[in-house]
Amino acid sequence: MKAIVVTDQAAGTAGMALVERPDPDAARLASLAGASYGDVVVQVHASGFTGDELAWPSTWIDRLGRDRTPSIPGHELAGVVSALGYGTTGLSIGQRVFGLADWTRDGTLAEYAVVEARNLAPLPGDVDFTVAAGVVMSGLTAWQGLFDHGRLRDGQTVLVHGAAGAVGSMAAQLAREAGAHVIGTGRAASRQTALDFGAREFVDLENDALEDVGEVDLVFDVLGGDIQKRSAGLIRPGGTLVTVTGPPEARPADGLAIDFVVVSDRAQLGEIAQRVRDGRVRTNIGTIATLDDAVAAFNPTKRISGKTIISIRP
Ligand SMILES: NC(=O)c1ccc[n+]([C@@H]2O[C@H](COP(=O)([O-])OP(=O)(O)OC[C@H]3O[C@@H](n4cnc5c(N)ncnc54)[C@H](OP(=O)(O)O)[C@@H]3O)[C@@H](O)[C@H]2O)c1
């Protein structure tokens, strides 16, 4: 199969290469000798990659700390189940699926990927593969940050940083649908995009005073650093700072600071797919490229906003 691999962490996305790799061995997966309990093989139709994946340790080492290069990056996928491993339940060969691949195994920028069945959800026939791949990571991250960790409720105010980006635009849409007042942030050029994705107000972080937004119940942080620290001071007693950038650098005076790493969740993927189908959420895809053009797409000459999705099969 064709796959994108990385071998040199220092090279970043410029070190990505399109190579030939062996197809997953379906017969071995299905046998007891394979010990691949619960795995399925997915014929990948569309794959997503997050910009700073190559900085994550899990791209380079496995769960036992062993070098796993050359590794295949990309963790979001939509495709069709082509083989079932030993002990797999809940999915069928030929089924359309989408989900999140394990961080510490070969990923989805390939014609086939091996994924634990529990990390996949059925994909309705009327949702395009590229759209589905474009909402996996952003949709799950936004859902878990707002509702699982942030416990957002109707009528509350949420400050969503990077509201024109992949995760932020999804958080803005889901929070607004949940009845929250959404204040989005970003650079000046992102204002209209953030408003289009559901923010009621926008703070230009380079020119406006963040402190002018007043008190909020929840901060959804994707930026970290100084912006995160200043945001903690805006949180009402009992409120929460949720961040996806690593251990929190600040805590609200009377509230919680929670960081998390997104996990795949079949029920939440179903909720997200339903919202895509009925138009309550839309994707924020900037570029769609083929696998042959993927390395160039991940090394753009100018900044692209929105996700880059690799369409591997129509
Ligand atoms: N922990 C987890 O589970 C998890 C899951 C998903 C994502 N993440 C992380 O979350 C972060 C965001 O991911 P994403 O896919 O949403 O990225 P993205 O699409 O690039 O969105 C980031 C947004 O923030 C804006 N931004 C960045 N720096 C800014 C600054 N200094 N001032 C104002 N605006 C700024 C960007 O604007 P420009 O485009 O103009 O720069 C963009 O609109 C990444 O670090 C990613 O690794 C973590």
Q: What would you note in describing this structure?
A:
This is NADP-dependent oxidoreductase. Residues 12-310 form the Enoyl reductase (ER) domain. This protein has 314 residues and is α/β, with parallel strands linked by helices. It has two domains: 2-123 and 284-311, Quinone Oxidoreductase, Chain A, domain 1 (Alpha-Beta Complex), CATH 3.90.180; 135-259, 3-Layer(aba) Sandwich (Rossmann fold). Helix content is 22%, strand content 27%. It contains seven helices and 15 strands. The strands form three sheets. Strands 3, 4, 5, 6, 7, 14 and 15 form a seven-stranded mixed β-sheet that branches. Strands 10-9-8-11-12-13 form a six-stranded parallel β-sheet, with helices on both faces. The protein is globular. The model has no long low-confidence stretch (mean pLDDT 95). Bound molecules: NADP nicotinamide-adenine-dinucleotide phosphate. NADP nicotinamide-adenine-dinucleotide phosphate is lined by residues 50-52, 137, 141, 162, 164-168, 186-187, 190, 205, 222-223, 244-245, 261-262, 303, 305. NADP nicotinamide-adenine-dinucleotide phosphate binds next to helix 2 and helix 3.
Overall helicity? 10-25%
Question: Which ions and ligands are bound to the chains?
Answer: NADP nicotinamide-adenine-dinucleotide phosphate
So, CATH architecture of the largest domain? Alpha-Beta Complex
> N-to-C terminal Cα separation, in Å?
16 Å
CATH superfamily of the largest domain, by name, is: Medium-chain alcohol dehydrogenases, catalytic domain
Number of domains: 2
The CATH class assignment of the largest domain is: Alpha Beta
Question: What portion of the residues fall into strands of 2 or more residues?
Answer: 25-35%
What is the CATH topology assignment of the largest domain? Quinone Oxidoreductase, Chain A, domain 1
**Could you report the average pLDDT, rounded to the nearest whole number?**
95
Largest sheet: 7 strands, mixed
Shape: globular
Radius of gyration: 20 Å
Q: List low-pLDDT spans.
A: none
**N-to-C series of helices and strands:** EEHEEEEEHEHEHEEHEEHEHE
Structural class assignment: alpha/beta
Count of discrete alpha- or pi-helical segments spanning 4 or more residues: 7
The total count of strands amounts to 15
Pfam family, one: ADH_zinc_N
InterPro entries: ADH-like_C, ADH-like_N, ER, GroES-like_sf, NAD(P)-bd_dom_sf, YIM1/Zinc_Alcohol_DH_Fams
Domain Enoyl reductase (ER): 12-310
Protein name: NADP-dependent oxidoreductase
